Hints:
By secondary structure, the protein is an alpha/beta fold. It folds into two domains: 23-295, no CATH class; 401-451, no CATH class. The chain is 24% helix and 37% strand. It contains eleven helices and 20 strands. The protein has helices at 18-30, 35-51, 67-72, 93-99, 123-127, 135-141, 143-146, 160-168, 401-408, 414-430, 436-450, and strands at 107-112, 115-120, 131-134, 173-177, 187-193, 199-200, 203-208, 213-222, 229-239, 244-252, 257-267, 272-279, 284-293, 299-308, 313-322, 328-337, 342-351, 358-368, 374-383, 388-397. A ten-stranded mixed beta sheet has the order 2-1-5-8-10-12-14-16-18-20, covered by helices on one side. Strand 1 and strand 2 form a beta hairpin. Residues 1-10 have low confidence and may be disordered. This is Fe-S cluster assembly protein SufD. It holds the Pfam family SufBD_N. Residues 121-189 form the SUF system FeS cluster assembly SufBD N-terminal domain. Residues 195-425 form the SUF system FeS cluster assembly SufBD core domain. InterPro entries: Fe-S_cluster_assembly_SufBD, SUF_FeS_clus_asmbl_SufBD_core, SUF_FeS_clus_asmbl_SufBD_sf, SUF_FeS_clus_asmbl_SufD, SufBD_N.
Amino acid sequence: MTNATTTPKTTLRPIAPEAWETTARARAQQQGEPDWALEQRRIAAAQAKALGLPSREHELWRRIDFRTLEQGLAALDPFHAGPAAATFGDLPAGLQAVLGEDADRAGVLVQRDAGVAFERNAAELERQGVIVCSLERALTRHAELLRPRLGALIEPDYDGYAALGAAIRSGGAFVWVPDGVEAALPIRLLHGLDAAGRLAAPRSVIVLGQQARATIVEEQSSAAADGLAFHLGGTEVFLGEESKLVFATLQEWGGNVYHYSNQRARIERGAELQWIQTVLGGRMVKTNSYFDLAGPGASAYVHGFMFGDERQHFHLHTLQRHLADHCTSDLLIKGCLKDHARSVYQGLIQVAEGAQRTDAYQANRNLVLSDTARADSIPGLEILANDVRCTHGATIGSVDPEQMYYLMARGLPRNTAQRLIVEGFFTPVIDRIPLEGIREHLRQVIQRKIG
């Protein structure tokens, strides 16, 4: 596939201080990072310099504005790491609250700013041969597993931010589930930003062997603060033949955070991916989620929602890439907006030549709660095979007055009636999230946003 984000011929703007790359490589070398990973950093830094900041002339950047971040980018600190915690109880109360009581029954990794502060693999998972550790630890202890996969799906020349993230990456997780193993417990990966002025660039790699099973929940959380912060993330997921992964990303940054991430998954023969994505926080959010159905009979079921208020701006780009025959992908993204919030959904189904008997669906449904909010929906198809079923659709509307009248006529206040309608709108996605504690938390966030 031709790179969908090739930067137009424009005057390049420097993306970050060159000293960042030098410092990142020096720190990684001190930690024992292997030469091949250091070389990846060097190449990515050269590409970041060549690409510069993404231009708004490009289609995927036309509808989102990172200029405020660009002006303050050089002042951010990409190397600050929160203090390590020897036990779960040593973590800040806010992070403990996010993980909740279920943390004792899971493999857990917690990142604070640019470094992993706490990692604990449950004994049940260790007995199964499941690995849950920081990416830095994996680079020294599991390099043979990591080398063919780190950077294999997120192309370092995708755009300037992706290249920068590869050059200065710090933290992130490595998860390995061996062939034939069904992980006995869920795995939870928490990313937190402690304060303004921070830049975090974690990279995570998740691998399931043949006929393996796992549930992984990635949570991104911070309190609101004065001043910019930037989360520059990347996740690469590899599903072996006949494996099954339930993966949820729950984003709830404070209102000062800019967020940019690339998430990629490669799904082999007969494997199944259940992908849940929620976008609730942040000031300006851009997420690219791409799914390669690489083996016959592979399937991906993608469900997500965005809920923006005040002046939040969310941009979600998805790619369902059918590379083999008899594959299925089913995507539903829902959005709800109030105040002056804005969302942009851009989705593309690609069917390669020879990917016959493809069954692909893509839908984006939006609920607008105020006259000043705006939702844009841009679905698309690129089909090079002739025996396929591919459909897409999009809707943008307001709360049904008849539904409001029905509820209010039975004694419910307007706000309560609206809350029930919005909760019902999101329920099909929330019900797919694997942990009840997280489902209840999301319901509370929705209630808080409605007011």
